[in-house]
Amino acid sequence: MTKNAIVLGAGIVGVSTAIHLQRRGRQVTLIDRKDPGNETSFGNAGLIQREGVMPYGFPQQLGLLLRYALNNRIDAHYHLRTLPSQIAFLARYWWNSNARRHANITRAYAPLIENSVVEHKDLIEASQAEALIRKDGWMKIFRSEAKRDAAFAEAALWQNEFGVEYDSLTSADIARMEPHMMTSDFAGGIRWRDPWSVLDPHALTSAYRRYFESLGGRFVAGDAASLGPFGSGWKIMTAEGPLEADDAVMALGPWAAVATRRLGYSFPLGVKRGYHMHYATEGNAVLNNWTLDAERGYLLAPMNRGIRLTTGAEFATLDAPKTPVQLGRAEAAARTIFPLGGRLDPEPWMGARPCTPDMMPIIGKAPRHQGLWFAFGHAHHGLTLGPVTGRVLAEVITGETPFIDIAAYSPQRFKP
């Protein structure tokens, strides 16, 4: 008999996992409170970051930490009143970001990143979503020669060890590539050749959802809070009534900590919130490239909805009210280099990234339950790693030999 599976969480990770399970003969129901792609997967920089082999670490230099403590930056912001509850997570995050440990984590993380574009390519073609994709990389620009040269040296190391391709850019190169950008303040930059960019991340997740349904899968509204063991499998209440399955996958992003705690687990999952806003342009101005102003910490992306401006990380509780101060700072800085027009969204979008203190996702079998599987904690690379996570986890669930080793991402490493 065909085995049933439920996937909780309809972001890019959950939808991708559902596709790969359905392809392998499982009858899959995708479950979420909202339609697919309407939470964290809705708002991001829209980059499939093949170059992102090194996870974002916690600053180690005392001088930089002191500057962050002033809480006036674009790339990071924190809620002072919530810091005491986050100290344990931040301390482990800082410890793992030590140069030696970070290098080891980068090597363990690399197989996921190395397969990110090819696994997206598979689903993009299958879902006929090619119109949402650009394949011309993105650029990172620098205001100081010192930062530029350090980035050149790091990029050369990544190219040698991980096969990441890039071009070194002069200020004249940037001016040629972006004729409507005021580039006099920039000393140069890097264009990463390998990444793909997404003109509408929500539309991409929706296209994957439609492809999943074309395979015979279905989406049903439901709440992960009702999931529980039932016989040798699992049971959950949905809008269509109770549903039973042999296997359950939790791909719940930042809500995974709460959902797994109900089943007796205690993962050190932190949250980095982020904001975006779309803008018109003044006159006939055109932005050609996804562009990160590296020393200010914001990114401009030419998306279908307008120019998307994204911020860095906000350290706050998952349910804290919006505090889009970073967006205001980023908008002021961005207007000095590009002729942004008016805001196109009624209010800033905010989402939360689920983060582990060792910067790697949690992918694999639940340690104390049969038929329960985890796929969360992808931090800044949820969009990037959705399809590769979905494939490798589906292979493990269905008894195939996984195409990459996922031992480093095992839930067991946290002794939950």
Automatic annotation (TrEMBL):
Keywords, sorted A to Z: Oxidoreductase
Pfam families: DAO
This protein's record includes keyword Oxidoreductase: yes
One Gene Ontology molecular-function label: oxidoreductase activity
Gene Ontology cellular-component terms listed: cytoplasm
UniProt domain FAD dependent oxidoreductase: residue ranges: 5-395
Listed name of the protein: FAD-binding oxidoreductase
Source organism per UniProt: Rhizobium ruizarguesonis
